[in-house]
Amino acid sequence: MAELRDLVIDAEHAATLARFWSEALDGYRIAPYDDAELARLKAEGIDSPEGDPTVLLEPLDGAGPRIFVQTVPELKSVKNRLHLDLWAADHERERDRLIGLGAEIAAEHPEWTTLTDPQGNEFCLMR
């Protein structure tokens, strides 16, 4: 039986969007770049983590799926086929916090708010 291992979010610029999601999600951080990762980037002609086309967000406690943010060549043009549903005890406060990080409200519904991340990917904040 298959197990969920990773979630992957497409991006125009992976490092920028990874910073948004590392701040948006409780318990996740951008994985540190050790010498091996820096060498991998250098071998690909990339001078710094800012240019990394695939940035890893790791769960702080080791539980839960890893999240990769990957640069793709095409711009987002239609609704996501898969999106994240988030929840917070104080919906309005969390909505405002996410907006402060760069999210935008796409729609308000009685049971959730649909938002977009800074690169246009939809996600929902449940009430």
From TrEMBL:
Gene3D superfamilies documented for this protein: 2,3-Dihydroxybiphenyl 1,2-Dioxygenase, domain 1 (3.10.180.10)
Sequence intervals crossing the membrane: none
Can you give the residue ranges of the Glyoxalase-like domain?
7-126
InterPro entries in the record: Glyas_Bleomycin-R_OHBP_Dase, Glyoxalase_6
Protein's name according to its UniProt entry: Glyoxalase-like domain-containing protein
- Give the originating organism: Stackebrandtia endophytica
